[in-house]
Specification:
Elements: E1 2-9, H1 29-44, E2 51-55, H2 58-71, E3 79-81, H3 89-97, E4 105-110, H4 114-119, E5 136-142, E6 155-160
Parallel strand pairs: 1-4, 2-3, 2-4
Antiparallel strand pairs: 1-5, 5-6
Helix pairs in contact: 1-2
Length: 169
C-alpha cells in the first residue's frame, strides 16, 4: 500500500511576551495567515491526511487546527502528543511507527531542530539547511504498515513553505 507522510513545522510564533514559557507561545499574525494558506495548498494538491498528530504546544496546536480546518479534517480527531514538543527524530519516528495501518496519509506537526533533522534523513536525494516555519515535506513509500517505515525506500515529492514563490498563486 502506498503511504504518504507529511511533516510540518509549526507556523511562525510570537515572541511578544518575553516572560511567557516557550510551550505557551502562540502564533503571530503571519503564522495565523500562513497555516490556512498551506492547508489550502495541500488540499489543492489532494494531500488530505487520514490522521493528524501534533505536538501539544500552543503554536503547534494552532497550526494543526488551522491546517485541519482548511483540509476539511475533523479538528476533534487531531491527536495531541506532548512527546512531540521539541522531539528528536527518533521520537518523531516512534509516532510514525505507531500510526494505525488503516491511515494511508499521516501528518505530523512538530518543531525544529528535530523536524529538520528528520526530513534530512528521508532520502539521500533531499536535504535542507532549515525547515521553514509552516514548511511541509511530503514523502511516499510502499509498505503494508507504518511499522515498516524504517526499511522503506522513501521518495520526497514535496517541499513547500509560505515564502516559496514558485508555488504561490
Amino acid at each position: 500500500m502506498k503511504r504518504t507522510l507529511l511533516l510540518v513545522r509549526h507556523a511562525k510564533s510570537s515572541w511578544a511576551s518575553p516572560l511567557q514559557s516557550d510551550f505557551e507561545r502562540p502564533l503571530n499574525e503571519r503564522g495565523l495567515r500562513n497555516a490556512p494558506e498551506m492547508g489550502k495548498r495541500l488540499k489543492a494538491a489532494g494531500l488530505v491526511p487520514d490522521l493528524i498528530v501534533s505536538s501539544s504546544a500552543v503554536r503547534t496546536r494552532q497550526t494543526a487546527t488551522l491546517l485541519a480546518e482548511e483540509l476539511g479534517y475533523d479538528t476533534e480527531k487531531i491527536q495531541w502528543e506532548e512527546k512531540l514538543y521539541h522531539a528528536s527524530p527518533a521520537t518523531i519516528e516512534d509516532v510514525i511507527f505507531g500510526a494505525p495501518d488503516h491511515a494511508a496519509t499521516i501528518m505530523i506537526v512538530t518543531h525544529n531542530p528535530g523536524i529538520t533533522d528528520l526530513v534530512n534523513q528521508l532520502s539521500p536525494r533531499f536535504a535542507t539547511g532549515n525547515m521553514p516555519t509552516c514548511g511541509v515535506v511530503g514523502a511516499t513509500f510502499e509498505a503494508a504498515g507504518w511499522s515498516q517505515y524504517p526499511q522503506a525506500k522513501r521518495n520526497v515529492f514535496l517541499f513547500d513553505y509560505p515564502k516559496n514563490e514558485h508555488d504561490a498563486e
